[in-house]
Automatic annotation (TrEMBL), chain A:
It comes from the Bacteria. Keywords: Membrane, Transmembrane, Transmembrane helix. This is Anti-sigma factor. The chain crosses the membrane at residues 86-106.
Automatic annotation (TrEMBL), chain B:
It comes from Mesorhizobium mediterraneum. PANTHER family: RNA POLYMERASE ECF-TYPE SIGMA FACTO, RNA POLYMERASE SIGMA FACTOR RFAY-RELATED. Pfam families: PhyR_sigma2, Sigma70_r4_2. Residues 102-154 form the RNA polymerase sigma factor 70 region 4 type domain. This is RNA polymerase subunit sigma-70. Keywords: Sigma factor, Transcription, Transcription regulation. SUPFAM superfamilies: Sigma2 domain of RNA polymerase sigma factors (SSF88946), Sigma3 and sigma4 domains of RNA polymerase sigma factors (SSF88659). Belongs to the sigma-70 factor family. ECF subfamily. GO terms for molecular function: DNA binding; sigma factor activity.
């Protein structure tokens, strides 16, 4: 048995069949003594299996006639346009790769880079909604019956002049609100309910450096967040309403919040 | 049909798979294979008897790919990128992919072309380090570090994707 120190490099060699056979026993012993490295190795095995599976189907596809014709010498002369077509995708790939250098491309699969600040706001807002909107008796800290106190308290804590929007026109009544952590800052959550018991929440923080807006939604029909970021504040409206209704409620809430900030 | 052409025909499925892993978009990948085959047929005499057709063809295709990536990088990728390319990238035609496959294909596209090629050569195409280093035209040590970094990067991207799986972003 060969005695030597192993390193992460050997994980790759073992995986790729490049580790000498007479080192296998020692390598396995090293893995057993280093659970972290063992887990890393197992992870790479799984990733490789996924990679192979993702492209396995290509081998079974019928070979396109145009490629066969090239080999048989029957291919028509290609137009310059088609000849250069493939590298457009290469160019797109290059942009993705460059974007990936600093902390990986967020929102992989979508062309372009995402801003983590937006992710954070929407994720926090959705998480808060999932937890508190489901609570029947303890959904809020301060009930709507104490609205004036609620607004003063949250405004002081969050550092923004908060006026709870009136969403009666959209069929929603204020249930109340609570104070939440938002990273290193604080956030105000305002909960609303319609007559069927459907709930939406507003999530407002004083932290934001840039302008952005967008929609976050979960694929499995969970709540979605419509958010806005502007200098000095961020706001997300979260709920599971149909898209059109959600957008209408969110716009109303946002315009009232904005008006409140400036009042 | 002569033996050389038969051997080349037999390699097309593997060439298509490699191209697909480099470029993702099916038509673009087949365009790359077509360019490769055309170049190969012009240089049929350079193909020495006994040399593996697979290695020969992969070398030709890799050079086509890397040359083009370098030109793209030199020109400044953002400025000359047509919109259609980005769309083709985001919506691969007629490909039925599971979420897991889509995530790993996306992640693979997001790592640098050099690392992607090195990793795919070894992990999917099954070339040895020596063969892959030869095809890519780099020393074995460089190949190894590209593979190691490529795997590490891929792992980070997949973790990232898993974290976001439930939350999909739809820009308005």
């Amino acid at each position: 048995m060969t005695r030597r120190d192993f390193s992460e490099r050997d994980i790759h060699m073992a995986l790729d069949g490049e580790l000498p056979v007479d080192e296998h026993v020692a390598y396995d012993a090293w893995l057993d003594a280093n659970p972290e490295m063992k887990a890393r190795g197992a992870r790479y095995v799984a990733d490789r299996a996924a990679l192979r599976a993702a492209f396995a189907g290509v081998l079974d596809e019928p070979v396109p006639a145009r490629l066969q014709k090239v080999v048989f010498g029957e291919a028509p002369v290609k137009a310059a346009v088609s000849r250069s077509r493939w590298w457009l995708a290469a160019a797109a790939a290059a942009v993705l790769a460059i974007g990936g250098v600093g902390g990986y491309v967020a929102g992989i699969g979508h062309f372009g880079l995402e801003d983590p600040a937006k992710d954070q706001l929407a994720e926090q807002a959705i998480a808060a909604h999932v937890i508190y909107a489901a609570e029947k008796r303890h959904a809020v800290e301060v009930p709507a019956s104490d609205k004036d106190h609620l607004q003063t308290w949250l405004s002081n804590r969050v550092g923004l002049k908060l006026v709870a929007p009136d969403l009666a026109a959209e069929g929603f009544q204020l249930v109340g609100g609570r104070l939440l952590p938002a990273g290193e800052n604080k956030a105000a959550m305002l909960l609303y309910e319609d007559e069927k018991g459907e709930r939406i929440s507003l999530f407002v923080t004083a932290e934001s450096a840039e302008k952005a807006k967008g929609t976050y939604g979960s694929e499995e029909g969970g709540p979605e967040a419509i958010y806005w970021l502007d200098k000095g504040y961020g706001c997300a409206v979260v709920g599971s309403l149909p898209r059109a209704q959600m957008t209408a409620v969110a716009k109303s809430a946002y315009s009232q919040l904005l008006a409140g900030l400036d009042s | 049909m002569d033996a050389k052409k038969a051997a080349i025909l037999g390699e097309i499925p593997r060439l298509r798979r490699y191209a697909r892993s480099l470029l993702r978009d099916r038509d673009s990948a087949d365009d790359l294979v077509q360019d490769c085959l055309e170049r190969a047929l012009v240089r049929l005499d350079n193909w020495q008897t006994g040399e593996s057709p697979r290695r020969w063809l992969f070398t030709i295709m890799h050079h086509l790919f890397i040359d083009q990536m370098r030109k793209v990088n030199r020109r400044g990728e953002g400025a000359m990128l047509p919109l259609e390319a980005g769309e083709a990238q985001a919506a691969p035609a007629e490909q039925v992919e599971s979420i897991a496959s889509r995530e790993i294909i996306d992640a693979l596209q997001a790592i640098s072309p050099d690392r992607r090629a090195a990793l795919v050569m070894v992990a999917i195409e099954g070339f040895s380090y020596a063969e892959a280093a030869n095809i890519l035209g780099v020393p074995a040590g460089t190949l190894m570090s590209r593979i190691a970094r490529g795997r590490d990067e891929l792992r980070g991207l997949l973790d990232d994707a898993a974290r976001r799986r439930a939350i999909r972003i739809v820009e308005k």
